[in-house]
Amino acid sequence: MRVPGIFIFVCLSTWANAQSYPSKPIHLEVGYPPGGSGDFTTRIIGDELSKELGVAVVVENKPGAGGSIASEFVARSAPDGYTILNQGNHQINKSLYKSLGYDEKDFIPVCRVANGATVLVVNNGTPFKNMKELIAYAKANPGKLFMASAGFGSAPHLSSVAFESVAGIKFTTIQFKGGGPAAQSLVAGDTQVMFATSPTVMGFIKGGRMRPLAISMRKASAAIPGIPGAEEAGLPGFESTFWFGLYVPAGTPMEIVRRLHAAAAKVLSKQEVRDRIASQGMDAAPSASPEAFDAEIRAEAPGIEKSIRESGAKVE
Question: Is this structure's pTM higher than 0.85?
Answer without folding.
Answer: no
